[in-house]
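ENTRY TYPE: paired fold submission
RECORD: A
CONTENT: sequence, then structure tokens
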Amino acid sequence: MLPPSVLQRQRGERICPARNQNGQLTLKEALFVRAICCCPEDPTFDNMCAAMRKAGYNGKHVGVAAYELMKKPKIANAIEKYRQNIMQEFDITPKKVLQEIAATAFSDFGDFYNNDGTLKNLKRLSKAARVALHGVDIQYGLNSDGIPAVTQKIKLHDKLKGLELLGKYHKLFTDNVNITNLDSDITQDERAAQTRSRLLAELSNDKDDGGE
């Protein structure tokens, strides 16, 4: 049976491919990197704390520890490497991402209906139209003559969000709204200020606890 140190290193390498042969990242660091990379948005105070706890870090001030960890070059490099591996594994390219966003942004309800107003067969829709389609709502009822009828309503993905993402990518707007969180009006500077404030609050509480 392999010694615990070897098993731990092998487990860390499976968890985070960015670990080098010299064990540059500890197991907890590798778990932290994976947790951060699995988050669908840029690191914030809350998801950094959550990532720390998932990695096995304990204590009241995990936010401060996470902030210090994120400043380490080896952590930043590991996060970048992990994300690159994910992109390669799933064949995700910037072009594909932009194509999917563009399909949503420029979707048209007219592409889904025949000339007589009936809904087209989904198999005959273009790829862009299928990408833009969020779902089909099927309702059963009676028409004005009392005859059973089926009503089909389509729902598309948010066009405005797609347009805003494309506008941000092409720098069409001058505001500083965070592209990864278009549901909020908070800017990146404001988000950073909030994170600093919360970290300072943690440190302040730590000093107060030590003075008792």
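RECORD: B
CONTENT: sequence, then structure tokens
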Amino acid sequence: MKATLPVGVRNESALLREIEVSAPTGRCLKQLRNDLIGGTNRDVYLNVLKQGVVEVVGFGKPTESLLLSMKAVDAEFVYYTMALLDAQGDWPTLTRACSQCGHSFKEEFDFTDVVVRRIGDEDFDSPFNNDEGMADFTLSRPITSLDVEKTPYTKGKIGLTAVGDWLDIISSKKKSEDGLGTKMMLSLVKAIAELGPDWKNSGTIADLDGLPMRDLKMLEKLHNDNKPGVRTPEETTCPNCGTEFRLMPFDWVKDFFVASAD
């Protein structure tokens, strides 16, 4: 299936956006379940991406380095397209748990409810829609830990996370001290493209620890609310108590490929 990536990958000076995507095969399912037993999350997601992207138009069969340089939102779009091809109109069901009463129920996931936002779309006004693919930000409190002169830095740029950085984040060990909060901070460290000298090579979570909470929430919102890619329904209603609640983000690979069919 031919598809257009939300952002695209760069090969030298050319931006390549058209790809050929394949439906997941039995070989893919076997590899996925083997990886879940003996491998890491990195193996799981990268192997699905390798199987899904048959061709990048203008490049051919993608190398692993090209896939790792893709944006994570483009990888998620590939997973979505593979799941759509696999479903063939027979929409899968997902198990939900109500955040209010705890009731567990199954709900059909209708792929027609999914919206794909692409850079360059007329109806998608994003701060990432520029030649750099980055959005400007200003912190309310300067960071002074980035060089020996203790120069205060408040202005920077945030970009879209690359697949390689995203895989590093999701494959980090799940310790009590490395939970969702730490992963959020690490995601911001990877997404910030400019802030002080040589941020991409030297910026750490420790540099963000002293910032006001409002600055971190601002950066997270700037990145998450404006990024292109696959947008799924964010709310549903509990059939037991009638409460509308916010859904946890989907994991396309584990929710749609690895789980057994009902």
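NOTES ON RECORD B: DSSP finds ten helices and twelve strands in the chain. The chain has two domains: 2-122+229-258, 134-226.
STATUS: closed
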